[in-house]
Amino acid sequence: MKIDLPSIEDQQELIFQEATKEAISQLEANLSAPRYPAQDLVDESLYPRTHLLRENQGWEAPAPEIVKAYFRHFQNHFSEYGTDAKLAVLLGMVGGGNDRRIRAFKDGSKKTPYGIWRRFLVLTGRVPQEVIPVLGIMR
Q1: What CATH number should be reported for the domain holding residue 100?
Q2: Which of 4, 25, 36, 65 has its CA 20 to 30 A from that of 104?
Q3: Structural domains counted in the chain
Q4: pLDDT digits 0-9 by tens, 105-117
Q5: DSSP 53-114
């Protein structure tokens, strides 16, 4: 008995195509995410909007008052992320003590890193998700 299997290269191509289709579906689904009222815990007009920019466009870490307001507003609407530890996991933070890191971002003792902040902004629909162009497939 002989079983013909696609080559590794063909399998990788299929995986790449399927993952791209799934990503497109997710991006389209994102457009239908539920809408929530804007946060009203802090007057955002008092702060620069540089925390909404991309890193290469002049991004600056958000003021702790913005971090605290955005996080609290989010946690008020999504009780499953109501603790700082659960929020940290959602934001991709790994290791112990991440609830303390979240609190440090809120109180300003640590600046919120770009990657963590950007992920939060994408998750909350404040900025579009970045799609990185593939310049070539090199296998």
Answers
A1: 1.10.260
A2: 36
A3: 1
A4: 999 999 999 999 9
A5: S-GGGT--PPPHHHHHHHHHHHHHH-GGG-SHHHHHHHTT--STTHHHHHHHHHHTSSPPPH
